[in-house]
Specification:
Elements (H helix, E strand, L loop, with lengths): L1 E5 L10 H9 L2 E7 L1 H4 L3 H22 L4 E4 L2 H12 L1 E7 L4 H14 L5 E5 L21 H11 L35 H6 L6 H14 L3 H4 L12 H5 L5 H14 L4 H23 L22 H7 L6 H13 L4 H14 L4 H11 L5 H12 L14 H8 L4 H7 L2 H7 L4 H4 L10 H21 L1
Helix pairs in contact: 4-5, 6-12, 11-12, 12-17, 14-15, 14-19, 14-20, 15-17, 16-17, 19-20
This protein binds flavin-adenine dinucleotide.
Length: 465
């Protein structure tokens, strides 16, 4: 017998339950299906997916001598025939519980029906299987702190070792992963991102994790500083499953045990990883989270829709140094520091009173670490409409944030005047550079009275609800 390993967001050998199960069935064919849901993803994320596939293809080839297979179309139409041709009885996938993927899985299950071929989903995208983390009444958690406590008490599931021996089926079809350019239509051109890309793939992810422990001691003090390389930079790898959260958890616990000086840093780092876990817990409970406010009364908040100031925001032209620096960083590299993401999002939703979904979609199109759960939870958190959100009246003053977290102005200087500014200028389409196309808001009045304006909007809204 043979088996199909249906790749999704699990481009790794380590802690890969679907791969282990497929190998137990016989020779394995890893298949990625480039479907409509994937094509609808944001451009930076699609571009990064192409790199994840290429890196996994190279690693698979190095171990087995074979390519992975990439098919274009819908899994429900392609995989049943493929399984029949190969004589495979099982299609294994590591579950990526994003709503779009769940629909794709359901469509495949429907076609497979009661026939001989079965789809098996395996856990590994999260620390703990969601069914194990329930409140006393059997519901899902809505507040981070008790949720995090429950996960710590349950204990993260143990990671599986990478398989020792691989037996692979020869790749079929013409589309080889190495040559895929999944985002040729990207607005900024994949070349820009490529010039600033971090290494992709499992080996790079494991190196990055290892490397992080050289800096972990300072993580609690420096993690909010965009001018210091203090965080792990693992989010991109996590988004594509090049490393599993269970491996990160186990490694951090072990390192802290061996080196007690790392304990505080590792603890804070794992608390952040639990925010990722919480985001997925919320998305599973409320799949509409990317589109609808968690708290339904917020559907009536009078957010502004598309507007000129919001367009200036998407083009990094707000005139607010820290906000524009962050948006430039994202445009050029596909990344943005977490503290700056919060400031940028606060400016859009509070000072500009603009609908958080406009920002969410811009991030979705621009981030190489785009994650449907983390992006939606954080946007709702900043906008104040999420379940355990920062209250709307907590409005960041971007200048104070800049003084505190970029005290020497290094981060802002890099993106507004330094090399980063040049890289950003190179991404600008001609239309933006024309007098009609360039938008830069005059933000001085907003800095002065934006907070009061936002609070007044909140007061009116509260009176009406
Ligand atoms: P580290 O500080 O090293 O943290 C380790 C890991 O913990 C991260 O890799 C990430 O998986 C997780 N984590 C850390 N902070 C958060 C958080 N606030 N929420 C959820 N998980 C967290 N993260 C994404 O991965 N994808 C997104 O699409 C995304 N969108 C965001 C949108 C907004 C408006 C905001 C404010 C935050 C968003 N984040 C998102 C969360 C956070 O900014 C990134 O996870 C973090 O910057 C990644 O850098 P790092 O890996 O160096 O983090």
């Amino acid at each position: 017998m043979s088996a199909i390993l249906w790749l999704c967001r699990d481009f790794r050998f380590d802690d890969n339950a679907a791969l282990a199960a497929a190998l137990a069935d016989g020779p394995v064919l890893p298949v990625f299906v480039l479907d409509a849901a994937t094509r609808a993803q944001g451009s930076a994320s699609r571009w990064r997916l192409g790199r994840a596939l290429a890196a996994f293809d190279a690693a698979w080839r190095a171990r087995t001598g074979e390519h992975i297979t990439v098919l274009e179309g819908e899994a429900a139409e392609l995989l049943p025939d493929l399984a029949t041709r190969l004589g495979a009885r099982r299609i294994h996938q590591n579950d990526w519980p994003a709503p779009a993927q769940q629909q794709v899985q359901a469509a495949l299950r429907h076609v497979l029906g009661e026939g001989p071929v079965r789809l098996h989903l395996h856990p590994g995208h999260l620390l703990v299987h969601p069914s194990r983390i329930r409140t006393g009444t059997g519901g899902s958690y809505k507040v981070y702190t008790p949720f995090a406590r429950a996960v710590r008490q349950a204990g993260a599931d143990r990671p599986l070792p990478a398989p020792g021996r691989l037996t692979a089926l020869p790749a079929g079809g013409d589309l080889r992963a190495g040559g895929l350019n999944l985002a040729p239509d990207m607005f900024r051109g994949a070349a820009v991102l490529a010039g600033h890309a971090l290494p992709a793939g499992e080996a790079a992810a494991l190196d990055r994790l290892d490397d992080f422990f050289d800096r972990a001691r300072d993580y609690p003090a420096h993690r909010d500083r965009p001018d210091i390389d203090a965080t792990s930079g693992l989010s991109e790898h996590l988004a594509f499953g090049e490393i599993s959260p269970r491996r990160i958890w186990a490694t951090a616990r072990l390192r802290a045990e061996v080196e007690p000086a790392l304990e505080a840093g590792a603890g804070k780092f794992l608390a952040e990883l639990l925010w990722r876990e919480f985001a997925w817990h919320l998305l599973l409970a409320f799949p509409q989270m990317p589109e609808a406010p968690w708290r339904p009364e917020w559907a009536a908040f009078p957010w502004a829709g598309e507007n000129a100031a919001a367009t200036a925001w998407t083009r990094a032209g707000t005139g607010i140094a820290l906000v524009d620096a962050g948006l430039r960083e994202m445009r050029v590299t596909g990344r943005m520091h977490n503290r700056v993401r919060m400031v940028v999002a606060s400016w859009l939703t509070k000072h500009l009173l603009t609908d958080w979904r406009i920002g969410l979609r811009h991030f979705e199109d621009s981030l190489t670490d785009w994650d449907p759960a983390a992006n939606a939870m954080n946007w709702q958190w900043v906008a104040g409409c999420g379940p355990d959100a920062s209250p709307f009246f907590r409005i960041f003053n971007p200048e104070k944030q800049a003084e505190t977290f970029d005290p020497q102005g290094r981060y802002r200087h890099y993106w507004l005047q330094g090399e980063g500014a040049l890289a950003y200028a190179a991404t600008l389409p001609a239309a933006w550079n024309s007098p009609a196309g360039w938008v830069e808001a005059d933000s001085a009045p907003l800095l002065a009275d934006g907070r009061a304006r936002a609070l007044a909007a909140l007061a009116t809204f509260n009176r009406g609800t």
